[in-house]
Amino acid sequence: MNYITLNNHVRIPQLGLGVYKVLNEEVSDVVSHALKVGYRSIDTAQFYENEEGVGEALKRSEIPREDLFITTKVWNSHHGYDKTLQAFEQSLKKLDLDYLDLYLIHWPTPMYDKYVDTYKALEQLYKDGRVKAIGVSNFHIEHLERLFDECEITPVLNQVECHPYLQQKELKAFCSKHNIYMESWSPLARGGMLEDETIQKIANKYNKTPAQIVLRWHIQENSIVIPKSVTPSRIRENFQVFDFELSEEDMEVITKLDRGERTGRDPNKMDMI
Ligand SMILES: NC(=O)c1ccc[n+]([C@@H]2O[C@H](COP(=O)([O-])OP(=O)(O)OC[C@H]3O[C@@H](n4cnc5c(N)ncnc54)[C@H](OP(=O)(O)O)[C@@H]3O)[C@@H](O)[C@H]2O)c1
Questions:
Q1: What span, in angstroms and rounded, lies between the C-alpha atoms of 58 and 40?
Q2: Residue 149 Cα to ligand 1 middle (Å)
Q3: Closest protein CA for atom 30 of ligand 1
Q4: For residue 50, what pLDDT is reported?
Q5: How does pLDDT run across 83-129, given as a tens digit for each residue?
Q6: Ligand 1: which residue has its CA nearest to atom 35?
Q7: Exposure of 21 by Cβ count < 10 A (0-12 exposed, 13-18 middle, 19+ buried)?
Q8: Distance (Å, rounded) from C-alpha 253 to C-alpha 257?
Q9: Which member of 7, 165, 170, 224 lies 3.0 to 4.6 Å from 183 by CB, making a disulfide possible if both were Cys?
């Protein structure tokens, strides 16, 4: 496993398991399997309603707490300073943890204009030692710029939709200039990338699966990546991406697949609360 050192010196595994849309009843077995395979980073959210099941699996595993990296996110309905602090306590309780590794604002929802106050609550939690690192998700450049103007602490990362069809190059360059890592959500475009003929050809050439090629591309792009699967064989397959390297030419071929195509919502249009 590769580790990335974030701007506050905290280390995060470069590859973790995402558990969006995994039911609370099934998530515990899914996470337990991933931990057995070697995953140490789990990405959940208040919105996923499966933090309890994630917590059960962590407890069952008996892996030392300091070896785990647990991320959760405050949902749009809990923006604002006080509501965010409450949401944090609820998440921590459900996860049955004493502290979080990473707490994110799930979406900026700029139409409600509360993400600055929300971020100030994250800063307080960080200063109080309740969370090892704070960051954002689905933030455009203009949202990050506002945090720079009105807040104190630079987010460690921005978790955004990213895969070969949506590479977010301008945002990535901006983040990189400000020492903010990009974390790719829907790194496989929810499975859509795996049907791509170019990816399939490269997979044949390396004797790897399309998912492994796409995940390896993210790793070599120096992004943090959190593929989701509930299928034991795929959870293992997605983890086996550190024993080969894509050539510069093949990286370039994949980079040319960019077509600005989202599978999810544009953050400026996400108004769900
Ligand atoms: N911050 C945000 O707003 C946000 C938004 C979306 C997602 N996320 C995070 O990012 C994580 C990943 O994104 P995602 O779940 O949307 O999509 P994804 O990881 O790109 O794709 C998941 C889909 O691909 C399938 N899959 C996974 N590995 C595979 C393999 N090796 N071969 C074939 N199919 C495979 C899965 O099927 P099975 O599960 O059936 O195996 C599932 O249908 C989420 O779980 C969540 O933690 C964050």
A1: 10
A2: 34
A3: 234
A4: 98
A5: 999 999 999 999 999 999 999 999 999 999 999 999 999 999 999 99
A6: 191
A7: exposed
A8: 7
A9: 224
User: How many residues are present in the chain?
Assistant: 273
Tokens 């090629």 -> residue: 213
Which residues share a beta bridge with 4?
Answer: 12
Candidate list 3, 20, 39, 48, residue with the active-site label: 48
What is the distance of C-alpha 85 from the center of its chain?
A: 21
Q: What is the 3-state secondary structure (H, E, C) of 22-57?
A: CCHHHHHHHHHHHHHHCCCEEECCHHHCCHHHHHHH
DSSP symbols for 230-259:
--HHHHHHHH--SS----HHHHHHHHTT--
Residue-wise pLDDT for 7-28, tens only, equals 999 999 999 999 999 999 999 9
Locate the DSSP E strands across 1-143.
3-5, 11-13, 17-18, 41-43, 69-74, 100-105, 131-137
- Span 209-239, pLDDT tens digits: 999 999 999 999 999 999 999 999 999 999 9
Helix, strand, coil share of the chain (percent; to 5)? 50, 15, 35
- Kindly give, in sequence order, each residue whose CB lies less than 8 Å from that of residue 84, ignoring residues fewer than 6 positions away: 74, 78, 117, 118, 121, 122
In the block, which residue shows the tokens 């997605």? 238
Active site residue 48: yes
